[in-house]
Amino acid sequence: MKTVYQIVLAVIIVILGYLLYESIMAPIRFEKEKNRRYKATIERLKNIRTAQDAYRSRYGKYTGSFDTLIDFMKHGEIKVVKQIGSEDDSLAVALKKVYRDTILIPVRDTILKGYPYDSLRFVPFTGDTFELAAGELNTQSGIKVKVFECKAPNKVILKGLDRQEIINLDDLAKKIDKYPGLKVGSLTEATNNAGNWE
User: Fold this and answer.
1) Which of 11, 136, 164 is nearest to 63 (CA)?
2) Which of 79, 37, 27, 23 is nearest to 55 (CA)?
3) Residue 148: how many CB atoms within 10 A of its CB?
4) Can you list the positions of beta strands (E) in the chain?
5) Burial of residue 191, with CB atoms counted within 10 A of its CB: 0-12 exposed, 13-18 middle, 19 or more buried
6) What distance in Å separates the CA atoms of residue 69 and residue 79, rounded to the nearest whole number?
7) Which of 87, 57, 88 lies closest to 72 in space, CA to CA?
């Protein structure tokens, strides 16, 4: 009978040791995976911001549609002003040989060259899409500003990871009045298209 108790006690010790190890390692693994996913998502949001800035330079506004943005990146053109001659050359200026010429060049050859534009809409590691919106904002000084916002909540970015850890992360963000996830730009304030990680 004594041997049975020893075996049962040994099994309980092993189980408790494993549970203790897992309680320590689970948050560490979650944090490591969260950082990996955040890093990839931030890079994608920066690329979306770059694409939106190019779109705005061409059309004077942002777009709230990934279809429009991706089509622009694949088939659109941007204006580039090229100066012929040097303004430092007084003779060339006097002879009116210094002028500027505007040319159109394909976006795909200049901005995010070689980037798989179709992937812009997708949150890395999940297959879900970002939320994208564009609009116009009146500032306190009465100036109308074109704005856009692209975001993904933690429950999408961290899909498939520990649910309680995601809830805790969202709770912390709400307590400090931050968006519970990652976003770039804002529809409610002029942020110069800054990301909430910056």
Assistant:
1) 136
2) 79
3) 24
4) 77-84, 99-106, 131-138, 144-153, 181-185
5) middle
6) 17
7) 57
**And the tokens for 5?**
């108790």
Residue carrying structure tokens 């976006």: 107
Question: Within 10 Å of residue 117's Cβ, how many Cβ atoms?
Answer: 20
Q: Is 108 exposed, middle or buried (0-12, 13-18, 19+ CB in 10 A)?
A: middle
Q: How many CB atoms lie within 10 A of CB 52?
A: 24
Percentage of residues in the chain with pLDDT exceeding 70?
91
Instruction: Report the predicted TM-score, pTM, of the whole model to 2 decimal places.
Output: 0.80
pLDDT digits (tens, 9 = 90+) for 141-177: 888 889 999 999 999 999 998 899 999 999 999 999 8
Are the C-beta atoms of residues 102 and 77 closer than 8 Å to each other?
Answer: no
